[in-house]
Amino acid sequence: MLCDAHNHLHDTRLTPFRAAIRTEMEAAHVERAVVNGTSEAVWEAVAELARTVSGLTSAFGLHPWKAAQRSPSWLDTLRRHLDADPTATVGEIGLDRWIEGHDLDHQRDVFIQQLALAAERNVAATIQCIRAWGALWEVLREQQVPARGFLIHAYGGPAEMVTGFVERGAYFSFSPYFLHPRKTAQRDIFAQIPADRLLVETDAPDLRPPDERNAHPLQSESGEPLNHPANLTVAYAGLAEIRTLAPDALEQLIEENFTRLFPARSGARLHPQPRIQTHP
What we know:
disordered C terminus, eight-stranded parallel beta sheet, 17% strand, 37% helix, TIM Barrel, two-stranded antiparallel ribbon, alpha/beta
């Protein structure tokens, strides 16, 4: 089976197409996926998807872009969502210097509180980082992290920091966006990341692959190009090329890594096989 370590299937841009998307994900053999909420406003939508679609793992977190808009009760609300779903994880959280008007100290405070919650419960944390790699390392070095590990999604940091992150428990997910020609550095890094820390993601509806490799072109109702969750197959194929692995060997490796970091309810799959009925 294929496993998407990071997407936003709840995103309203995908709402008009969601039934067709699930059919196409089934055809692509996508069986597990982590759906990341990024603000209080979408956590219930993520929870509802996870309740109704087997094989989805919910992740609840305040994205660094949303940290400044949090409510006074945000942390209690986050705890309630985690309490309601024993398989839920924490994400998407992190640090981001790319956004205009960022306040890194403010982001760091919110990030540390969420990381502590993941460590306390020993559930995976999914981390976003852009242009703040030194600051991220300081937090991960000084704070408790989940014993299970954590994911740095769509890793775009320096190659020389990989070893330190691995020692703290990091996994790294490969995005189809890294197949764009200008992303040579990211592809080179993913050729060297330890095999037992590799994952694959789409970040759908964002970070779509280059047009020539886009297996599932999709546009929002307003005409915005979107990344289709079934483009997970594109990311797997690209990573198999980079690692010079047979596709089935990569699929087995990623499934093992995914289930180690994101354990599911027993037997949970995005598209369960039909039961064979017997008759007396």
